[in-house]
Amino acid sequence: MTTDPALHPVRNLSLLRDRNDAAVLRAVRAGAENGISRVELAAHTGLTAQAISKITARLLAEGLLTEAGRERVAGQTGKPRTLLRLVPRARFALGAQLGRRGIRLLQVDLTGTVTARAEAAVDPQGEPGPVLDRLAAMVDDLTAGPTAQRVLGLGLACPGPLDTRDGVLHQVTGMPGWHGLHLRDEMEARTHLPVIVEKNTTAGVLSRLGPDNRAFVYLGDGVGAGLVLGGRVHRGARTNAGEFGHQCVDPTGPLCACGARGCLEAVCLTALRARRTDEAARALGIAVANLVRLLDVEDISLGGTTLLDDPDPFETAIRTELATRIPDPHWQHVTLTRAPRLAIPQGAAALALTRLFL
Ligand SMILES: [Zn+2]
Known about the structure:
The structure is a single chain. The chain is an alpha/beta fold. It folds into three domains: about 5-85, Winged helix-like DNA-binding domain superfamily/Winged helix DNA-binding domain (Arc Repressor Mutant, subunit A), CATH 1.10.10.10; about 90-205 and about 345-355, Nucleotidyltransferase, domain 5 (2-Layer Sandwich), CATH 3.30.420; about 210-340, ATPase, nucleotide binding domain (Nucleotidyltransferase, domain 5), CATH 3.30.420.40. It has helices at about 20-30, 40-45, 50-60, 130-145, 185-190, 200-205, 265-275, 275-295, 305-310, 310-325, 345-355, and strands at about 35, 65-70, 80-85, 90-100, 100-110, 115-120, 150-160, 160-165, 170, 195-200, 215-220, 225-230, 230-235, 300-305, 335-340. Helix 2 (about 40-45) packs across helix 3 (about 50-60), helix 7 (about 265-275) runs antiparallel to helix 8 (about 275-295) and helix 8 crosses helix 10. The chain is globular and about 75 Å long. About 45% of the residues are buried. The structure holds zinc ion (ZN).
């Protein structure tokens, strides 16, 4: 249970001059709720007591840490240890989900708790400019006031295909005017904040810590999957892994928005439009079982508006297909959960938070 988006920087946006400062902040964040002592910090980070003393003094002065009482260690005499805790509202991060139906924007504190949110209906079928202007206005509104100077950045989750490294979109289905758009640069120019562009499904899988091999399976206006494999986000050679919805499941099936025939996404969406939910659910269930057999993930969270609006048939079909297609389902057990509705913008915000924890 060690996965942390902080271990997988998209690009170097680190806010701290000293990597050891970030290591200390990570250890404090991972420590007990009532705080962690300097002695424990030294043990967790491998830094000397002297280094810990200097770093914590700096982080206390910057307002990122606070002293949170004292702890007497059983069997030890002498001075009780001072506990240190994160100051949740010392900094904030923004996470946005830009979808085919609208924009969701969240502000979170250092613990990932949502502190403000906004939504807007937009039409991404046309030119991107007005949509980006609207998102920038929402960012301005949400960060107005005394917290403005304490916002670390904006994580922006979008449908793929896209290149996370340069923040450029590539032929997103249903958004033809966005092909080739330098989304990161456009939003950085509008918001004056560091922006990380990430695929919506990858943001989804980063919305929580979890087992080292896990997936976020998404059914909304499209179908996709975000992957954490071996404790690391799996983005692939061009950062475009997880186009789970565009695996061919029927070579003679319906034409997909991507131009190919018989993609899982086309099969699911065609069945759903015809109100054949069971057919869509079975197709998704088979694909999830294939994913488990291919990658041996042990934990799958299900997200996306379409699925979460009517989850039962999908969960039932996925459980059925896992039970019948995995040779030893007790040994290769898969935990299936429903993701929160805000998982994608929360995961995007978690990426922006990494500026402090990298
Ligand atoms: Zn397709």
